[in-house]
Amino acid sequence: MNTNIKSNKTLLVSILAVLLAALLTFSLVGCNSSQEPTDKAQTEGGITNDFAAEIENTQFVRLAMSSVSTLAENGSVSKEITATVLPATATNKAVDWSVEWGDGSNTATVTDYVTVTPDSDGSTHAVVTCHKAFTGNILVTVTTRESGYTANCMVSFAGMPTDMSLNGNVSLSGDAYKVGIGQTYTFDVALSNPFGSVGSQFNNMSCSVTGVGSINVGYMEHYNSSGADKWYETSNKVLTIDSIKDSFITASYANGQLTITTLKSFGSYYSAKVRLDSGRTWGYEDKFRSYVDDCYFSVTLQEANSGISKTVKIRFDEAVVTGVNASVTEMVF
Q: 316 by DSSP, 3-state: which?
């Protein structure tokens, strides 16, 4: 192998070794490694087998972070971070962790804001904890004890929410909101975190409804003259509430408010109504007959930029007073 080929290979290894970048939020951002070849480079561009082996066995360290935040009783928020020391055959994988301000002009004590705590001495797994809001960036660095390879993550404070609350004109009853039929209910939606500072970018909210449970339905004819009902047993079938949820409830989110409107009760459900015998008889397709199991709705709000969500149960309670009518509107003596 001549000098030019060796020089080109050395240059390529150096370039490949610095091409790792990952986004992490707390935000943890900009995780990278001081030495890292890419797997893709081993199979493309006509690289020979011995050069692929050279890349694979180059030692380096890289970082990856969990997507899940953990909220502590003291109000701090933590995420797990893991360093991977390669190659897998390296005998000494012990590392050391450190934090410092990304901007050297900041003189505040960095560990008042962010700390990194390994599981044990030399552990490649650690917990990064944000203790309070800060401006600027904080650098988390991992260093291999053997050969001194490094990787780092830039930590920034974005004000990610950790909780979502609803405040409406109906209160929880057990594990659900019990609502009347033909009514509209509104809930103010609030995002919060222990730091008292939620970023303005966390406002991409969506709303969805899932129906839970199922009912028995069938074809029924109602005779107006006698008030009798006749069911045709061969028409009986089971419908899931989710498949017909739009008949019962609507839910939407706008301008910080969740709005839920109830349309009809389960017991009043039918899919179609036909007039028979010049109106003396009415036929009902898929008319409610009985409950198969517990029926209710799950309404879920989710903020897309943070992934935080909240799901509430909505139960129909036909005992809830929703209005009043007099038997007559006029009386004469």
A: strand
Measured between alpha carbons, how far is 77 from 155 in angstroms, rounded to an integer? Answer: 13
Tokens of 56: 């694979």
Residue-wise pLDDT tens digits, 238-251: 999 999 999 999 99
Find the domain containing 151 and state its range.
3-156
Query: In this structure, what token pair is assigned to residue 133?
Result: 């809001």
Q: At which of 114, 136, 156 does a domain end?
A: 156
Can you tell me the distance from the alpha carbon of 307 to that of 282, in angstroms, rounded to the nearest whole number?
A: 49
The phi and psi torsions of 305 (rounded to 5 degrees) equal -75, -25
Alpha helices in the chain (DSSP H): 3-16, 49-56
Sequence-distant (6+) residues with CB within 8 A of 85 are 59, 60, 61, 93, 95, 124, 144, 149
What pTM does this model have?
0.69
Q: Which of 36-45, 137-146, 153-162, 311-320 is predicted least confidently?
A: 36-45
Q: What is the CATH number of the domain that holds 134?
A: 2.60.40
CA distance 262 to 242: 15
| Cβ neighbours, 10 Å, residue 25 | 17
DSSP H or E stretch at residue 185: strand 184-192
Go through the chain and tell me how many residues it has. 333
Q: Which of 136, 138, 142 is nearest to 115 (CA)?
A: 138
Residues whose CB falls within 8 Å of the CB of residue 273, separated by 6 or more in sequence, listed in order: 282, 283, 284, 285
